[in-house]
Amino acid sequence: MRYIYFYLFCWLKLKRWVAGRCKSSAVRIAVMEKQGRRHHISSKLFHHSVSDCSFNASDDGQLVDATNNTSSSNPSIPIPIPIKQLFRQTKEIKEMDFFSDNKIMNDDADDDEEPRLQPQQDCNNNPPAVNTGLNLLTLNSGISSTSAGDIHQNSNNKLMTSLQVELERLHEENGELKTMLDQMTKSYSQLQAQLLIAMQKQAQNRLREPIKCEANGMLARQFMDPRLSAAAAIDHVRNPSVAYSSGKTPADHEAFSSFSPSNLNIEVMSTERDQYKRRLQTNINCAEDALDRSSQCLVSPNYTSKSSNPNLLDDDNDEPKSSTDQEQVPVADQVPFRKARVSVRARSEAPMISDGCQWRKYGQKMAKGNPCPRAYYRCTMAIGCPVRKQVQRLAEDKTILITTYEGNHSHPLPPAATAMANTTSAAAAMLLSGSTTSKEALQYHHHHLANSGFFSNSQLPFFASSMATLSASAPFPTITLDLTQSPMQQFHRIPPPSSSTFPLPLHGYPINHQLMGGLGHPIPAPMYFPPNYKAPPSPAGVSLGGQRSTSTHASGMVETVSAAIASDPNFTAALAAAISTIMGAPRPHQGHQESININDGDIANNNAARGVVASTNNSPPSANIGVPPGSLQPGSPQLPQSCTTFSTN
DNA sequence: CGCCTTTGACCCGCGC
DNA sequence: GCGCGGGTCAAAGGCG
């Protein structure tokens, strides 16, 4: 299994490297153009090269970061000779001296000659001469070339010829790179499939293993997983000395980011074109930016088909709009853009709970079937922040405040807001990731989540009783974090018949902003936004067998562990970290996600770092941030036992 | 004066 | 096509 991970990682690195090289060549060509040589170059050839490069560079979503990585080659991956040549040639072009006829002639005479004097050096070594300036003007402007002498004409012709040759060579090598990328993509997909199969087998095997072996299983997963496992995170928080002494330091949280999109260059596409465009332009730090796409964006590791679309960079092509497009693009590569919503139920007498963010009310409506009005708020912490939330009291119990968050913050969040944002983003991530593209995947998702006991038996012993309610009904998939019920109530709560439930470490936990904010590195939430996302099928089509038994199976352990950790003052911190970590940890048993653990999970990391879905901490600036009075108090013995239902409507 | 809330109007999607 | 409901806009007014 670890080899599969390794190969996947290597493929990703190689792909990124190649794409980066390709893009760098395109950039250098653009430099040439800016230097006034455009008129020498066949526009057709030029654009062809650029388009090829651009498309390659964006193949796996590396548009933004590709250039940042071009300077560093991966030593672990052999550098193809053609790429080396390409790099050397493009470098040569970049440093071509336009200030001297001799240099130009030299260029023609020896294309492989080492870099010449820099223009500045030339100027320093040779006092400014009128001729130099004229030549420069002639060469660079390309306008007065017709009036230049025959010598200049010949020079220009030779230069043009050499450039054409170079461009042709670049073009050919681009084609080779393209082919390489295609092959790599195929291999990557195959490896993903193998990984999926292997994980499925592993999950099945885990079913047969006694619970006592779960520790070993966790270790194994940890070993395979570049990130911390949930259990590790708990230990990490509860017993920092142990965690740190074992080599895990707070810096490890940053290590999460090392697998994040910023490094793997996973392309994240936003539903909202302007946001996506803005991000491309500003190249926002992934650590703070990526997440925003959590609920709105799609991450597709299998971006092969899209990669073949040279119009990828075209905003108008960000989203597949026609059915034709969707048919052409494999399901896994389609871009579903649906906003996920995270609804938090909490008991609160206040009209609105403070969650660390600033909100402005922009509307209020009377919702049908509820005498209480629904208020609409917009985040005002930053201009243009798309995050919105709805606040409404439950009709049945007006003491319960339902806060629904939508969108992702486009700005840094204060620690208090980051905490809940991480949780909600993780919830959104799970929501979307749980809604896989295919029915089989969904069924597998539910079935194995429930039957394999992955969460309850091994990775999530402390969270077995925690569930969230997921409603994927139109118009937006929504996950509800119910913080209103007592832990035991929730634990024994019978899920509605129309819901499919499985243990999920989402909710019912107080958010310790000190922990999460203090870490400063919001633990990534793996998010896979399946292309062509659609709301999960109605529960009727979802197999839930074994779920109930799973909860029962883990209940004893859960209660024991809950009682033990409830008294731990760091309990809430552990929960918070575990929640995020679990969300960020790979879910080998999950059908669709597992194939993207390396990618999407990392993306999610950054997404979480961004505080995506909006913060939910609405409690007063007291200790229980985001936790309604009496429901979720840090250290509350109820919390560990709290239960949430993750259901699919 | 600026920010915020209120509130009616408007838009849009969906179902009949 | 029409009505309904959800969501948003924007003018008006309040408040510090």
Explained architecture:
With 649 residues, this protein is α+β, with helices and mostly antiparallel strands. Among the domains are: 37 residues; 108 residues, Single Sheet (N-terminal domain of TfIIb). It is elongated. It starts with a helix and ends in a 39-residue tail after the last helix. The C terminus is likely disordered. The structure holds a DNA duplex (16 and 16 nucleotides). Keywords: Coiled coil, DNA-binding, Nucleus, Transcription, Transcription regulation. It comes from Prunus avium (Cherry). This is Probable WRKY transcription factor 47 isoform X1.
Could you give the order of strands across the largest sheet?
A: 4-5-6-7-3-9-8
The count of DSSP E runs of length 2 or more, i.e. the number of strands, is: 9
Annotated CATH homologous superfamily of the domain at 341-431 and 467-483: WRKY domain
Taken as a percent bin, the fraction of beta residues is: 5-15%
